């Protein structure tokens, strides 16, 4: 640590230099995060010092967190649903599995039935919680095989998981069929809609994935992904508003006496940022944004197929995947690889149509 | 959700109104968070969109995270220490216990030996991880009893925990004695310095609590507390730089192939905020800040004793506690209660000397 400290301008000149080492979003095609919407940034700055971990000190901010939850509850067809703002999908998924475990303490070797396409946060969460993760194979469209899921469920199963918008291929699992199976077996059914939760409701033909399906217990959604909020902004929704109280821990010295969250101190700023985007854009604005991302996804797939790159899947949301090799991709574009030979591009809001055309042009020149 | 969306000025007028419902920091005497330092806010805004969860996209920001870790490593007398920026103390403590558990997979019923004064995040973490938490009583100065701790350790003990600056009474456990015990029994020793980690090094006579003591394995410190950074900014430090790799999970589609963090997406903004404060103030600036907080703490204790309020402890850091009743405290001051009859005030940087005098004046008038 420096003894005397550094003059502010010298320090920020150094920070600017480091910032320039980060990649230019114009070339980032691989991320499920995006540039935050200006209203999210404005709200974030306004609520910079707020701490939702001590809501009695910040009752105004805490009421905005509850308003965000209410927005999702209405959007997901269960106005009375409860929930809270998490640090993102991992915390939401971990807390949902923790809920399942706490509710069924008597099961000594609990397992969770999870599609093979699930985000790695499920492996992390199962490891942490001591839950056996039972993988369910996908069908040939890369969606979870519902019959195979049903076969995996036994008396030690505490949770079934479905994904609404897989990280790698952008598929929506057969949530309606899975919800029925969960109901039949009376297990908690968690829908990981971290990505798709702010895409699917705004599609021309929304795929059923939410509390409109009896059997869906909890839903994870990340406003810091397609919600264009600042990081970290996740939400865990529960159909029963009081379900989370099963996780309560005593908090002797705070303005509340118990808390069910994972973190103690929690930033209010990104949470108000998330609400700002939803309320500023409204359903119509979100529909327009999603429409644009889907249009770009289709254009990218069509363009790539023109150059002979076969799609790896026909996605439900704005994730495009192709059979390709690393040397097929020109610099400085930043794409990702879900496995060797499978190229993945996420058409986030910052990936404008003009960037898709520029990418296709560069691909075309490399393969001319 | 609104259909058409809300005009920006109307929305922000509503947010302003909600913001005014939050408490005025001038009267908040109960929090371990504070108003962020202006350089933290400036750095936060500069790095608003960065995601440390995908460091290949943000190599500049990721290098600043490593620089923050290096600052703490040097401050804690182990320049080669490793670590990462967490969402705060709960994640740091959970990850330290997770490390202990992963390293000793063969122990079927692991336990952790934790002082009764430990933050409730340890109960949360032990519940999540399936670790038995063995409470160790405190001595009559409210510090962990090292002999009692040694007696609790058995062949199933995977971790010993000591607190450097307890949340409730501001005490530093006998870390040196505990480090020796941990060494003798060969268990991981985690020091929770979430609060004290940015106080103790800057005291006139620092109490040994860090890697200078052989036996200390991991340290938690929260820059969003006394480091005056924005929320969320925590750090987990490990003496062995590679220790965290025991927690690695495969991350197929990211710019890195594995990660050991709890969250996936992680904000870079508060992390650069934390570094900004440390580098701007330097050791001398932090010393001056800590000196002021300690002076205010002593003045508060002396003033309260003048009015007949007995101290509940003689703290090592800037937390003052008194025997008092709720009706002793005038509105609109916001204090906290560690247990019925024990008033607690944290003299954070936003609690200036003038606020202490104003509080004492109000107390004096109520008790005149």
Task: Please characterize this protein's 3D structure.
With 368 residues, the first copy, chain A, is α/β, with parallel strands linked by helices. Chain A folds into two domains: 114 residues, Aspartate Aminotransferase, domain 1 (Alpha-Beta Complex), CATH 3.90.1150; 241 residues, Type I PLP-dependent aspartate aminotransferase-like (Major domain) (Aspartate Aminotransferase, domain 2). Chain A has nine helices and twelve strands. In chain A, the strands form three sheets. In chain A, strands 1-7-6-5-4-2-3 form a seven-stranded mixed beta sheet, with helices on both faces. In chain A, strands 10-12-11 form a three-stranded antiparallel beta sheet, covered by helices on one side. In chain A, strand 4, helix 7 and strand 5 form a beta-alpha-beta unit. In chain A, helix 2 packs antiparallel against helix 8, helix 3 packs parallel to helix 8 and helix 8 packs parallel to helix 9. The longest helix of chain A is centred in the C-terminal third of the chain and has 38 residues. The first copy, chain A, is globular, with a radius of gyration of 21 Å. Chain A starts with 7 loop residues before the first helix and ends with a helix. The model of chain A has no long low-confidence stretch (mean pLDDT 97). The interface between A and B is large, with 105 and 106 residues.
Question: Outline of this structure?
Answer:
The structure is a homodimer of 368-residue chains. Helix content of chain A is 36%, strand content 15%.
């Amino acid at each position: 640590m420096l003894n005397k400290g550094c003059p502010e301008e010298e320090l920020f000149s150094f920070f600017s230099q480091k910032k320039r080492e980060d990649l230019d979003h114009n070339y980032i095609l691989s991320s499920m995060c995006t540039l935050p919407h200006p209203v999210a940034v404005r709200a974030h700055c306004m609520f910079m010092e707020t701490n939702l971990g001590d809501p009695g000190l910040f009752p105004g901010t805490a009421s905005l967190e509850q308003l965000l939850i209410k927005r999702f509850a209405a959007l997901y067809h269960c106005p009375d649903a409860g929930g809270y703002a998490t640090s993102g999908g991992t915390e939401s998924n971990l807390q949902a599995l923790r809920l399942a475990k706490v509710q069924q303490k008597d099961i000594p070797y609990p397992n969770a039935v999870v599609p093979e396409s699930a985000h790695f946060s499920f492996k992390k969460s199962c490891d942490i919680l001591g839950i056996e993760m039972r993988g369910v194979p996908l069908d040939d469209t890369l969606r979870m095989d519902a019959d195979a899921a049903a076969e995996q469920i036994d008396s030690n199963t505490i949770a079934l998981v479905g994904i609404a918008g897989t990280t790698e291929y952008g598929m929506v699992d057969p949530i309606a069929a899975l919800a029925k199976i969960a109901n039949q077996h009376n297990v908690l059914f968690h829908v990981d809609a971290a990505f798709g939760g702010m895409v699917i409701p705004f599609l021309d033909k929304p795929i059923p994935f939410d509390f409109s399906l009896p059997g869906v217990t909890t839903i994870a959604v990340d406003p810091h992904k397609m919600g264009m909020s600042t990081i970290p902004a996740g939400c865990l929704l529960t159909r029963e508003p009081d379900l989370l109280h099963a996780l309560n821990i005593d908090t002797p010295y705070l303005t509340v006496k118990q808390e069910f969250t994972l973190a103690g101190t929690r930033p209010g700023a990104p949470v108000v940022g998330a609400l700002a985007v939803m309320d500023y854009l409204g359903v119509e604005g979100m529909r327009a944004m999603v429409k644009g991302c889907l249009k770009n996804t289709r254009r990218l797939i069509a363009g790539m197929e023109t150059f002979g790159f076969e799609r790896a899947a026909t996605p439900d949301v704005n994730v495009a995947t192709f059979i390709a090799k690393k040397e097929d991709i020109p610099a400085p574009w930043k794409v990702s690889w879900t496995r060797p030979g499978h190229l993945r591009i996420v058409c986030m809001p910052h990936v404008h149509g003009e960037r898709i055309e520029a990418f296709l042009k560069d691909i075309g020149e490399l393969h001319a």
